[in-house]
Each structure stands twice: as structure tokens, then as C-alpha cells.
Design goal:
Blueprint: H1 13-20, E1 26-31, E2 36-40, H2 42-48, H3 60-63, H4 72-82, E3 86-95, E4 102-114, E5 120-129, H5 131-151, H6 156-170, E6 176-182, E7 188-193, H7 199-205, E8 208-209, H8 215-223, E9 227-229, H9 242-248, E10 252-259, E11 265-273, H10 281-349, E12 372-375, E13 381-384, H11 386-395, E14 400-401, H12 408-413
Antiparallel strand pairs: 1-2, 1-5, 3-4, 4-5, 6-7, 6-11, 7-8, 9-10, 10-11, 12-13, 12-14
Helix pairs in contact: 5-6, 5-10, 6-10
């Protein structure tokens, strides 16, 4: 936008209103060393807060007292006294005060205007608000970094902690971010991330129940919708936690539920403030975007947990199978050794006097040839077929194969 030459008389207020009245650029004409607002377009008044501020005929310092410590009035004095224009780029300014204060960024020019004699009589302020562009650039960069963390399967605590710090950096005003994670049953909330909140506060709310009136987060989780508490000291939801919040220096809390794609509760995302505050559109946009990002990270974490649990179960199954196989192999080896011993003993006892038939067939008897002699620690002994001998050895702890020379108890004592 081309400014009027410094040697020409100032344009009339009506002309300025016509020129800038419908513009998205902010414009104000300030006169005299006290910078009295002589004219301004609607965009200027909207930018500074509107309402009672939409006035002319008063000094800018009186209209916007928050400028006193931000350097803008000093720059106006400099331009007025030197007659040299000043241009700022992406200049940060806090507009308003208290709960309704907001951070904004502007590209602007302070250009002096002069009377016919060339004396500086005032300053034109022309600017374009770049707040949305500035925040969008910052948001895009931070959001991309978080998505990259999620994609490379970074630990959930690392992702949530990084997200909280990003929001604390991006938010227009000082804010403390907390993420609580829902238990599988959805009835309690556990600590997830809160890098800037006091440790005692995080410990106290770890495990709080979800339910109506349980602070901002418990209520948001219960309702499955955002809960905005602008003044903790006066809100009934905070009756049980008011003293805790006071100790932590917290005065406002806006909580948004974190929901899975199927609507299941994953947790809550909260923004805390030291003074009572009403959320701006940028605050709500941050909460919406990052609640969605948190949902993505938490769901990804749950999927990875399920995969790991399945892998662990598979590993346990494979281990059990190996143990069973090893035990079976041991039993097979033991059986082979027993058979070898039985065959050797049968060969050794073949010529010894022994009954014709197996004596281990029980009441029904056994017609198989007697091949081996077994004895026990009490001195009892008997001859039997190979099948009944093997059965006795496997099932009766004290039974062993006896030789004819060392039968009964003698064989046990001298084994």
C-alpha cells in the first residue's frame, strides 16, 4: 500500500475512512505527540478488541494501556520526533488484559505525516495481522514433527511429552498441558504427560475417576465432550480439587476428551492457566488438532501393545512346546535305556531257574513267559514278562531288576 508523500497535507478523516473502511488491513491516524486516535478503520478496532475501545479522540496509550511495556509507544515517539518511518515484521503484541488477553502478530508501518510547513503533526499506522499465518507455520512444523515420531513408533510417553511442550510453546498465552490416559474399563484416568505441572499435582490426580462433576477432565471423559472451566475458584466441578489447584497455582482448565475412531475413551487433553481465562478460537483449534494427534498416538500404542502381547504369548507357547518335546525325548531315551537293561537282564537270567509264566498278571494272571526277576526294598521278588516288568518299574518306586545272585533285600542293600 503506497503512503501519502511526507510533504503533502494530511488527507481528511472521511477520505481515510473511505480508503481503509472495508480493508482487512488495520489503519489508524494518530495526531500530536500524545498520539491521539483521530481516525481508524473497523479492522483496527476489531484487532484491538472492539467494544469500548472503538473510540476516537483519545490518546492511544489511554485506549490501549497494555502497550506501555511492549515498546510500541516508544517507537511512535521515535517516529514522531525523528520524522523517520519505521517498519516491523511479525511483531508480537499482547492485546487486552486479564482473561480476554490474546497474542497477535503484525506486519506494520509507522509513517509520519506533516503539515504544509513540513512539520510532523502525526503518524499513520498501517498494518496487516499475520497471527494466523504465524501460528499456522508454527503449528505445521510442530505437528509434522509429532507425526514423524508416531510413524517411527517412538514411545508413547515421548510423543505425549513432546506434544505437551509444543502446545505450551504455540499457545497465545502461558498454558500448562496435561494428558491423562483412560484405563481399559474407562472408569479412571492415569497420568500420561504434564511436563510443566507440579509433581505433587500430577500424583494427586493420577487415577481420578471419570464422572459428572469430577473436575474438568473427569467430567469431559464422562460426557465425551469438551468441558471449559474458566474460573476454578468458582466452578462446582472443582469443589473437591480446588485446594489442590490453588496450591499448584491453577485458575482455569479446559479439557477435551481423546476419543478413538470407534468412539471409545482413550483419555483427556487439558490446558491449564494461572489466571481465569476464556478460550480464544486459536486455543480451541489447538485443542481440537492435538486431541486428534494424541488419539492417533494412543491408538498406535495400543496396537503395538497388542502385537507385543501376541508375540509374548507365541514365545511362551513355543517355549512350552520345546519343554514338552524335550520331556518326551527324555522319556523316550529313558524307555530305550530301560528296554536295553531289560533285554540284557533277560539274557543273563535266561538260564536261571524260574517259573514258566509271568507272576505279575494280578488276579487275572498272565500267560506270557517269565523273562525277568524284579525285587523291592522289602525283599519281595517275582518273575514277570517284559511288559509287566516295565509297568512295575515305571509305577512302583522301589522296584528294580534283580539278579539271581542278589535277589530281594540283598540286591537292594548292595545295589
Amino acid at each position: 500500500m503506497t503512503a501519502v508523500s511526507g510533504q503533502q497535507p494530511d488527507t481528511t478523516a472521511d477520505d481515510l475512512r473511505t480508503l481503509f473502511g472495508q480493508s482487512i488491513a488495520v489503519f489508524a491516524a494518530l495526531s500530536g505527540p500524545s498520539h491521539v486516535v483521530e481516525a481508524a478503520n473497523p479492522a483496527f478496532f476489531t484487532a484491538i478488541g472492539g467494544g469500548d475501545r472503538a473510540r476516537t479522540g483519545i490518546p492511544l496509550a489511554e485506549l490501549m494501556p497494555e502497550l506501555a511495556d511492549q515498546g510500541f509507544l516508544t517507537l511512535l515517539d521515535q517516529v514522531f520526533h525523528t520524522g523517520e518511518a519505521y517498519t516491523g515484521r511479525d511483531a508480537r503484541i499482547v492485546l487486552g488484559s486479564g482473561p480476554h488477553a490474546r497474542e497477535a502478530f503484525f506486519d506494520f508501518t509507522y509513517e509520519p505525516y506533516r503539515d504544509a510547513a513540513g512539520t510532523v503533526t502525526g503518524i499513520r499506522v498501517i498494518g496487516v495481522e499475520t497471527t494466523q499465518v504465524k501460528h499456522a507455520q508454527q503449528l505445521t512444523a510442530e505437528h509434522r514433527a509429532l507425526l514423524e515420531q508416531i510413524a517411527r513408533q517412538a514411545p508413547l510417553t515421548e510423543v505425549l511429552d513432546g506434544m505437551a511442550r509444543s502446545i505450551e510453546t504455540l499457545a497465545p498465552q502461558e498454558v500448562f498441558v496435561s494428558v491423562l490416559l483412560a484405563d481399559p474399563d474407562g472408569r479412571h484416568l492415569r497420568h500420561g504427560a504434564a511436563p510443566s505441572l507440579p509433581a505433587f499435582y500430577n500424583e494427586a490426580i493420577d487415577g481420578i475417576a471419570t464422572g459428572e462433576g469430577v473436575g474438568s477432565c473427569g467430567t469431559a471423559a464422562h460426557r465425551r465432550e469438551p468441558v471449559i472451566v474458566t474460573d476454578i475458584a468458582a466452578d462446582p466441578f472443582w469443589t473437591e480439587f480446588r485446594d489442590l489447584a490453588t496450591r499448584a497455582g491453577l485458575a482455569a482448565c479446559w479439557s477435551t476428551p481423546i476419543l478413538a475412531r470407534d468412539g471409545a475413551l482413550l483419555g483427556t487433553f487439558a490446558m491449564y492457566h494461572r489466571t481465569p481465562r476464556v478460550p480464544q478460537d486459536t486455543d480451541l483449534a489447538l485443542a481440537h488438532i492435538f486431541a486428534g494427534t494424541a488419539a492417533m498416538a494412543i491408538e498406535r500404542h495400543h496396537i503395538e501393545q497388542a502385537k507385543q502381547a501376541a508375540l509374548d504369548e507365541l514365545a511362551r507357547t513355543v517355549h512350552s512346546e520345546k519343554q514338552l518335546r524335550a520331556a518326551a525325548e527324555q522319556r523316550a531315551t529313558a524307555a530305550a535305556e530301560l528296554n536295553a537293561r531289560m533285554r540284557a537282564a533277560a539274557a543273563a537270567l535266561a538260564a536261571a531257574p524260574h517259573p514258566e509264566h509271568c507272576q505279575l498278571g494280578g488276579r487275572t494272571g498272565c500267560t506270557e513267559p517269565a523273562e525277568l526277576k524284579v525285587a523291592d526294598s522289602w525283599g519281595d521278588s517275582a518273575w514277570g514278562c517284559s511288559a509287566h516288568i516295565e509297568e512295575a518299574i515305571l509305577n512302583v518306586r522301589s522296584v528294580f531288576i534283580a539278579s539271581e545272585e542278589l535277589g530281594g533285600l540283598a540286591a537292594y542293600v548292595n545295589r
